[in-house]
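Hi R.,

As promised on Friday, here is the backbone we talked about, encoded as structure tokens. Could you run it through your design pipeline when you get a chance and send me back a sequence?
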């Protein structure tokens, strides 16, 4: 990561034609629909019919009312980094290639979690088994929480008790120079955390955070990752369509 928030990468980035020919896509995004889970302090998603040929108009169109952090989404650094901070960047100021390139997934087992936290040992274990996490990688944490995703009123299990990384682990990711991190939880820091240490460690160093990812348990250790945010002027984040491409 350079000082101006652009990518400095050691990762492999494949041509688009090779991706589509030699790799198959896995959608890592939850469907956006009414009654989907939302963070307790965030507004819910609503979809309203605006015009339709069912009512005499020429076409169908819906109006969407959604929070910037609806569903599978990415946090911009300015979500937490205030005015004057060197990483105070809104989503329209973020280099979109930060969410393009090699991805790795670290699968978290029940035994890895202590008091709701998983630590640097999961990263070190991954690197022993699969090689070093590289500069510019997108690092995802599969906690299994995506299996709890459900529409209201059945979403309570998804909205309480989710795990998150220790501050030590977040700082280790900063040292490795990754471009983005994400998990299958509604918040990257563990439920009920005080101070949001992982958010401040990562966003404070220009590393993007993705939340509410899906299907992470289907991924091999490494893959090609693509997740594009909307170009929202002054946006603190954006919904994304996150996709992993794995070898056929």
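Update: got your reply. Pasting your designed sequence below so it's all in one thread:
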């Amino acid at each position: 990561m350079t000082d101006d928030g652009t990518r400095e990468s050691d990762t492999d980035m494949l041509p688009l034609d090779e991706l589509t020919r030699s790799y198959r896509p896995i959608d890592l995004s939850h469907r956006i629909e009414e009654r989907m889970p939302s963070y307790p302090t965030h507004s819910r998603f609503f979809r309203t019919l605006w015009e339709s040929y069912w009512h005499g108009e020429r076409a169908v169109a819906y109006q969407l009312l959604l929070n910037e952090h609806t569903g599978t989404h990415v946090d911009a650094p300015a979500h937490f980094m205030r005015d004057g901070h060197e990483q105070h960047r809104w989503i329209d100021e973020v280099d979109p290639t930060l969410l393009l390139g090699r991805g790795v997934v670290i699968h978290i087992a029940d035994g890895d979690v202590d008091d709701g936290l998983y630590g640097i040992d999961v990263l070190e274990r991954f690197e022993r088994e699969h090689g070093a996490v590289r500069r510019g990688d997108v690092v995802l944490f599969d906690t299994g929480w995506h299996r709890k995703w459900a529409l209201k009123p059945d979403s309570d299990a998804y909205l309480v008790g989710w795990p998150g990384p220790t501050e030590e682990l977040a700082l280790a990711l900063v040292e490795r120079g990754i471009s983005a991190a994400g998990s299958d939880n509604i918040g990257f820091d563990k439920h009920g955390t005080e101070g949001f240490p992982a958010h401040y460690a990562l966003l404070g160093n220009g590393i993007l955070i993705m939340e509410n990812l899906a299907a992470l348990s289907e991924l091999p250790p490494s893959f090609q990752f693509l997740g594009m945010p909307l170009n929202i002027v002054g946006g603190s984040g954006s919904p994304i369509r996150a996709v992993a491409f794995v070898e056929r």
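One thing I noticed while checking it: The chain has four helices and 13 strands.

Thanks again,
M.
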